[in-house]
Amino acid sequence: MHWNTLAEQLFDSPHRIEADALLLRGSADIDGRAVTVVGTTEHAPIGVALALAQARVVLDTVKQHPGRPILLLVDTQGQQLRRRDELLGINRAMAHLGMAIDFARRQGHTVLGLVYDQALSGGFITSGLIADGCYALPEAEIRVMRIPAMARVTKLPEATLEALSVGNPVFAPGVDNYVAMGGVRALWRGDLKAALRQALQDTPAEDTRARDGQVRGGRRMAADVIQRVLDAD
């Protein structure tokens, strides 16, 4: 779905979101309540400049609009694979974006992520996954690593990983698997404005992903391991 079509379905009309090349930024209202919107479009690769630009929008919201909700619109092919960005410290720029989002959360801003098209690798990890709640459209594509790449990293045969992906969401791409693992809280279908309204009202501030993954059968051990570590402290 095109970002403008999405915005028209999410918010009161007219919205105040603009595309600056691959960057989306602005604000919009739902039931008369302002929401800051920041994100990317056209399967954007997240490089240093784009990560810092998104972080700037988040930090400006914290400074200028205390308590205003923030919606992250996610459409990315992952981090920018370019020597220039590596030399400039893309890892630190993306970490800065993640820290800016976490800072906003700690200052009382409800931060939601919505994968409306594509979410891959580090570009997703340092944006939507850090939000209070990450949601997705049913037609969105989410993955961190393709099975051939996973095979090269793990040194396991592709056939083995393919077999594992059938019954274990951790090894499989797709929005349904991310819902099962708890990384995505829910898929937004039908009335998108109603879905956003409910998410703004119901999304908890605490991190429930491990517990959600356990209940849904996608991550069966994470919640227990976390609890054992906490108990050991």
Would you kindly provide a written description of the structure presented here, covering whatever features stand out?
The chain has helices at residues 3-10, 48-64, 83-88, 90-106, 121-125, 147-154, 158-167, 175-181, 192-202, 209-216, 222-232; strands at 16-20, 23-30, 33-40, 44-46, 70-79, 111-120, 133-136, 141-143, 186-187. The protein has 233 residues and is α/β, with parallel strands linked by helices. It has a single domain, classed as 2-enoyl-CoA Hydratase, Chain A, domain 1 (Alpha-Beta Complex), CATH 3.90.226.10. Strands 1, 2, 3, 4, 5, 6, 7, 8 and 9 form a 9-stranded mixed sheet that branches. It is globular. The chain starts with a helix and ends with a helix. The mean pLDDT is 92.
Major sheet characteristics:
9 strands, mixed
- CATH architecture descriptor: Alpha-Beta Complex
Low-confidence stretches: none
Quickly name the level 1 CATH class.
Alpha Beta
Would you tell me which CATH topology applies? 2-enoyl-CoA Hydratase, Chain A, domain 1
In DSSP terms, counting alpha (H) and pi (I) runs of 4 or more, how many helices? Answer: 11
Query: Proportion of β residues?
Result: 15-25%
The helix-strand sequence is: HEEEEHEHHEHEEHHHEHHH
| Average residue-wise pLDDT | 92
Helical content stands at 40-55%
Tell me the total number of β-strands: 9
Distance between the amino and carboxyl termini: 46 Å
Q: What structural class do the secondary elements suggest?
A: alpha/beta
Number of self-contained structural domains: 1
What Rg do the Cα atoms give?
18 Å
**Shape verdict:** globular
CATH superfamily membership, which one?
A: 2-enoyl-CoA Hydratase, Chain A, domain 1
Oligomer: single chain
